[in-house]
Amino acid sequence: MASQRGKKYKPKETSNADDNDDQNENQPTCKEDETKLAKIDKKQKKQKALLEFRCMVEDAILGNYLLGKPKIALSASENRKAREKLREITLWGVPLLPSKSHEGTDIVLTKFLKAKGFKVHDAFEMLRKTLKWRREYNVDSVLEETSEVDVEKLVCIGSRDNEGHPLYFNVYAALKDKNLYNELFGSQENCEQFLRLRVRYMEKGIRLLNFKAGGTDALVQITDLKNLPGSTMKELRLVTKKCMMLLQNYYPELIYRDIIVNAPFWYYASHVLSSKLLSQRTKKKFVFARPNKVTKTLLKFIAPEYLPAEYGGLKRENDDEFCPEDKVLELNVKKNSTSSIQIPVAEVGVTMIWDVTVVGWEVLYREEFIPEDEGSYNVLLNNEKEKKGIESIRNSFYIGEPGNIVITIQTGYKKKRVFYRYKTKPTVPMYFFLK
After folding, report:
1. Separation of alpha carbons 132 and 139, rounded Å
2. 117 and 218 share a domain?
């Protein structure tokens, strides 16, 4: 008993581990809650900014001062007519008067807010300057203008990216022709005409947009600088710089992504200098692709059936054989290996047509027809010992007996992605016409 009394009682030590575990479990929840609250707060601030912007635009239109106060005093009737006219003002085909309740009005106004970091007064000034510039530059008539130069070689709109944005191409390879270059940039007047040309195609692209909830409301611009010398292109650089500023100042958030391909080394230094005038938001839109990475980069954003053949895709202008809805298949070929695509053809009297592109090419490539009948001869259709370049391959073969079209691809030290599609079409043999 004494020994027992002599022992000092020590309460059982309890670990704080359980409490710590509870705290640790709660911490992520707290952080998640903070993140959610921050997102909600940010969203509410944006909604508040949009509401304030709507009221500001509404008041400016109804008060007849959106484009600035009239320089001369107007009579009561003139003032009434001016107000009625301003009530119908639109931008990119969308009414600006919020009380008209057009579903595109908020989308357009939000673009100006985004461009100015949701600072309402800055967004309002940007909108006002945009409308004034369009009136002074006479943008509404630019679509009716024509050019004596074949501008389709330089600027075109066609196809869409994976998210549905229309593609706007600027291709400058044709400017190697000195005569064409002088036609476009030989004088200050010519430079201004080229700038209007760029505005015209921008306006054409905007007509393809859909200013609705869930709609595609921006373009993807692709600028191809292949074979563009830098030493004699001072005028082009100045016009390009002006164009970049026009897009930033008067077309906010209408360029979703700006992809520069085949840029020469001198261009990067030039871009760094010119981009100092651009906002951080605009700078983030740029994507650069070196010549050997053009197809790989573009395929990140554009499906092969929508990417032009000259960039390694399967799309061809005025294509009578395939359409974007035709199924495209993919084959991955390991490095230092050989794979084949076999297209079985059981029906005779038809023509088999196929498209093939290898990302990056630099492979051994072969096409042949192998009949089912072992007594028949194989037909060699294409045998490129080493296929280089970018452009995809299209070929066809009239099927006189059952067999297989076999496409063989042998890689080197890099694995390759292959995209292909095929179809048959009824064909009347030539001898039928000869009869």
Report:
1. 10
2. no
Q: Which domain holds residue 429?
A: 327-434
The model's pLDDT over 73-122, given as tens digits with 9 standing for 90+, comes to: 667 777 788 788 899 999 999 999 999 999 999 999 999 999 999 999 99
Q: Bridge-partner residues for 167, per DSSP?
A: 220
pTM for the predicted model, two decimal places: 0.82
Report the greatest alpha carbon distance in the chain: 129
Please answer whether residues 371 and 403 qualify as being in contact, where contact means their C-beta atoms are separated by less than 8 angstroms: yes
Task: State the helix-helix crossing angle for 105-115 and 120-137, rounded to 10 degrees.
Answer: 110
C-alpha to C-alpha distances, 104 to 93, 209, 210, 358, nearest whole angstrom? 9, 11, 8, 41
| 131 and 178 share one domain | no
Q: How far apart are CA 239 and CA 35, in angstroms?
A: 44
Place of tokens 């020469």: 264
Amino acid at residue number 55: C
Rounded to an integer, what distance in angstroms lies between the CA atom of residue 151 and that of residue 183?
A: 11
Is residue 23 assigned to a domain?
no
Asked whether residue 5 is domain-assigned, the answer is no
Claim to verify: residue 179 and residue 223 sit in the same structural domain: yes
Is residue 307 in some structural domain? Answer: no
Q: DSSP state, 58? A: H
The answer on 85 and 105 residing in a single domain is: yes
* CATH number of the domain where residue 378 is located: 2.60.120.680
CA–CA distances in Å: residue 234 to residues 161, 170, 262, 420: 32, 17, 19, 42
pLDDT digits (tens, 9 = 90+) for 349-400: 999 999 999 999 999 999 999 999 988 999 999 998 888 888 899 999 999 9
Cβ 160 vs Cβ 166: under 8 Å: yes
| Other beta carbons within 10 Å of 429 | 12
224 and 217 in contact (C-beta within 8 Å)?
A: no
Q: Which of 89, 117, 137 is the last residue of a domain?
A: 137
Least reliable range by pLDDT among 2-6, 62-66, 395-399: 2-6
Task: Give the number of domains in the chain.
Answer: 3
Burial string for 110-121 (b: 16+ CB within 10 Å, else e) reads bbbbebbebebe
Co-location of 414 and 271 in the same domain:
no
Q: Please say whether the dihedral angle defined by the alpha carbons of residues 127, 82, 58 and 88, taken in this order, is positive or negative.
A: negative
